[in-house]
Every structure is written in C-alpha cells, then in structure tokens.
Amino acid sequence: MAVMNFAAQAVTTTENLAQNDVLAVRNAFLKYNIDEQAKLLAKMPISEAIAVLHECPLRHVQTLLDLLDEINEHVRMRHLASGLGLICSEAEPAGHYLKNSVFSHVRERIGWIVGLALLGIVSGLIISHYEDTLSQLVLLAIYMPVIAAAGGNTGSQAATLVVRALAMEEIRCRDWVAVMWKEFRVAVVIAAVLAVVIVGRVMMFSDSTVLPIGMDLHDIALAIGMAISLQVVLSTTIGGVLPMVARACQLDPAVLVSPVLASVVDITGMMIYFTTVNWMLGLA
C-alpha cells in the first residue's frame, strides 16, 4: 500500500509526463492487481490517468472502467472514457448506443429535465407580473421570443465550445476566470452587432401609428436593443462558465449544461427584458 501511495503522489505531482515517463508509470501501474489499479485511477488527476491508460490494452482499460463504475466512481469513469474517446459525449451512456436500454438513456437525462421543467414556471410568473407592461405596449410581446432565442443560442455556443475544450484537456476548472473573461469579450462584440440588427428591424418593420400616445418608435427600438445586448452578454458568460462548474462538482457537463442553461436563459431573459424596457420607457 505504501508503494501505491508513492506511485499516486509521483503521478499527481507530475504536470507533463514525457513518453518515457508514461511508459515507466504504465509498467509500475500494471504490477498492481486490478482492484488496486482501479483505486489508483480514482485518485490520479484525469489527464495523467488518461495518458497512462492510452498505453494499456483496450480490453484491460474497459475492465478498469467497469471496476470504477462498480466502486461508485461513475463520474470519474465517464470522464476517463470521454478522454480516451470511448464515448463521444459525457452524456452518452457507456457502451454501444443502440445496445443500451431505453431506461439507461432516460436515467441519464430525466432528472434534470423534470426539475428544470418545474423551474420553468418562474418564467410564466415573471410574464404575468409584467402583464400591465404588455397591455400598454403590445409590440413588446413580438420580441419576447427573440430575446429568449438570442440568449439561448449564444449561451449554447459558448457552452459547447467549453465542454469540448474540457474533454480535450485544453482547459481546466482553475481556468474559469480566463474563460469567463474571454467569453465576456466575445459576448460584447456579438451583443453590439445583434443590437444593431434588432434596432434596425424594429425601426424599419414596425408600425408607429399603433403606438400609444407619447411613445416614440426610436426609443422602443433602443430599449429592445439594450435588453437583447444585456441578455446575450449574460447568457454567453454563463454558458462559458457553467460547464466548468459542473465539472468542479463532479457532474457531467453535457448532461447538465443544456437544460440548466435553457432554464436560466428563460428566467433571466424575461427579467432583463421587462426591467430594461420599463426603465428606459418609463412604463408602470
């Protein structure tokens, strides 16, 4: 056991293993029995564990992954399998897609879907709270789906890129500040372009004759453009950081990110939209 601890510490403290070092660690790793190897994999950093497993026979790797699953290291097993290319997504059940039972696929997805569907009621409560705003300016209702779609699309793009970068070991959880700063800058540029497009759309294709007295179409367009800009910046930033939060909590980012992001975008989108429009247009 003391030798095992020494081997684990040696692997943990090594940032980048050269090929010769990997082979040496692989040889030492294979000297332990299969149960000890599984326990060692549970303690090793993921990147180093993947490097060692790359040098092991595929059948042996599959046996180790099965053992990790049996000792309740399900998340670690999926991370390793994803890094080794044995599954294409961390949300994909282990094994062949068509051979896995329907229940195994449902089990991977149903929990978050049901919980977040119930959370979606909050969006309806927000809309009902601002019913007076919509009754004063019906034009706002036309652009509610645009706000939600823009936030969802930009957030999903950022999340997909970060999930891929995590799977490829290009970034780690400790890089969350750098990721957030980068996605924020990307979001600002996208938001500015999208705001110009939406303001132009409102100005050119909206009928100013049906507006309430005292309302100016230019002001309405700017308010909608500002709301969509804030939503895009927030959604993109959250989409970039959320996969890293999931990984840090030992959850599968591909399972968690999409449904959580959709619910967050719906709730924050309606809040940002109505709050911004009320403030800029002076509505009740």
What is the gist of this entry?
By secondary structure, the chain is an all-alpha fold.
Can you tell me about this structure?
This protein has 284 residues and is an all-alpha fold. The chain has 2 domains: 2-83, no CATH class; 102-281, Tetracycline Repressor, domain 2, CATH 1.10.357. Helix content is 76%, strand content 0%. The protein is built from 14 helices and no strands. It has helices at 2-12, 19-29, 34-43, 46-53, 58-70, 74-83, 102-119, 121-129, 131-136, 139-142, 144-167, 176-205, 217-248, 253-281. The longest helix is centred in the last third of the chain and has 32 residues, at 217-248. The protein is elongated and about 85 Å long.
The helix content, as a percent range, equals over 70%
- Mind telling me which CATH architecture of the largest domain this is? Orthogonal Bundle
Number of domains: 2
Looking at the structure, the CATH topology of the largest domain is Tetracycline Repressor, domain 2
Shape: elongated
| The level-1 CATH class of the largest domain | Mainly Alpha
CATH homologous superfamily classification of the largest domain: SLC41 divalent cation transporters, integral membrane domain
Our estimate of the beta-strand percent is under 5%
Quickly count the helices. Answer: 14
Category by helix and strand content: mainly alpha
Q: H/E series, N to C?
A: HHHHHHHHHHHHHH
Mean pLDDT: 80
Distance N to C terminus: 70 Å
SS elements, strand count: 0
